[in-house]
Amino acid sequence: MEGTAIGNAADFTAFPAAVTVGNHSYYLIRTSEGGFRLLSRICPHAGYEVEAEGGGFFCYAHGWAFDGESGKCLNAPRQLAAYEVEERDGTLFAQLP
Ligand code: FES
User: What is the SS3 assignment for 30?
Assistant: First the structure.
């Protein structure tokens, strides 16, 4: 697993953490298994940015809400794009397209 380096794990102390890679914005979250995951900030409805709110994510454009760990939409059968993250020697690597 290669992946894109997104930073040192120890530098992320509060979650969700905003992460930018190139022109793309993500939230780094902790999973219930103790791992990490990147969720796209781009709403799958019409492309506005979602905000972290109340333990999940919310899109103010049209009111869709998303689960804070899986990114699954609570209003429609959609979800925030999710990317696996692996920690190697203290550095986080994401499997980005
Ligand atoms: S763009 Fe997010 S709910 Fe419409």
Answer: strand
